[in-house]
């Protein structure tokens, strides 16, 4: 890979300045939280390399999160954040754990912040980042006091919305990019795309899929092999089989696990019909299913029956390599792209 000239690197730094200032990192690139994958090793590797790592709390208990934050701090002195899922039953205890450790950035994922959560997070000075799935919600979140937004399109791995990254970026950036830093996510595999979103007004970007095969990632060798073999078209969205049971689609590599999810939906829909489950509980069961299935693939290496959550950028993952090399490649590609611009 050719080195970028200082002109390209300088232009990139200038475009990333706001994001860098907000995150306290060297590059305005976040490694999106990935349940089971984004634990101490990947998070510390990302932050140590100059990017910004995020611990995926997922279904962790407050005690486990407490230990994970402490262990991450032991591996890096650079800033990192914690991603919490809004529907976690112990959300407020998890926020307390973050406050206890003076975590500088908290990401709330999985829906709008519940009442009281914004104040609870910000009372100690932590910066709050939320996902904005539409312009109206972006504006509402900013009015509620959210400090930064992630705009994530359906090309992403894991739980997804219905709209593509390119459309969301065009819809949201012109209206809100001057109000709070906005990080674009979903389908980014190369630096040229990072340069393009920065030029559209993004303060930075968030990538997940591209970092899964970092050497420091604890994902099972089978999980990494599946990523390295896959192409974009293998990363498909799950299908909702019952109109009464709204399930958030999940993008993952096709495998036999897809049939297990269909069976799980049938089982939950039947319990719903029989009045044995309320809708909220039914949806929670679906989320528990995903957490278990992802663990089976990431930790146990069962890539047939577990969930291989991956974004469409998976085709651009071609080998296992140190996280610092992945980040450096992205930065060089972005800087090269910017050399072609006028300023
Ligand atoms: C294996 C996997 C697990 C994920 N788990 C979570 C999660 O627990 N919480 C979350 O907010 N996002 C999760 N995501 C989304 C990522 O944080 C990130 O936003 C996304 O991967 C960006 O899109 P990309 O995959 O196209 O780079 C996950 C993504 C993957 C690939």
Would you summarize the structure shown here?
An eight-stranded parallel beta barrel has the order 1-2-3-4-5-6-8-9, surrounded by six helices. A three-stranded antiparallel β-sheet has the order 7-11-10, with no helix packed on it.
Description:
The protein has helices spanning 6-23, 40-48, 62-75, 91-100, 117-122, 135-143, 165-176, 191-199, 221-229, 257-273, 279-298, 323-339; strands at 29-31, 52-56, 80-85, 105-109, 127-131, 148-152, 158-159, 182-185, 204-207, 235-237, 250-253. With 343 residues, the chain is of the alpha/beta class. It has two domains: 6-217 and 317-339, Aldolase class I (TIM Barrel, Alpha-Beta Barrel), CATH 3.20.20.70; 221-298, no CATH class. It has an eight-stranded parallel beta barrel, surrounded by six helices. β3, α4 and β4 form a beta-alpha-beta unit. α3 packs parallel to α4. The longest helix is centred in the C-terminal third of the chain and has 20 residues, at 279-298. It is globular. It binds flavin mononucleotide. Residues 32-35, 37, 56, 58, 83, 109, 152, 155-158, 185-188, 206-210, 309-311, 313 line the site of flavin mononucleotide.
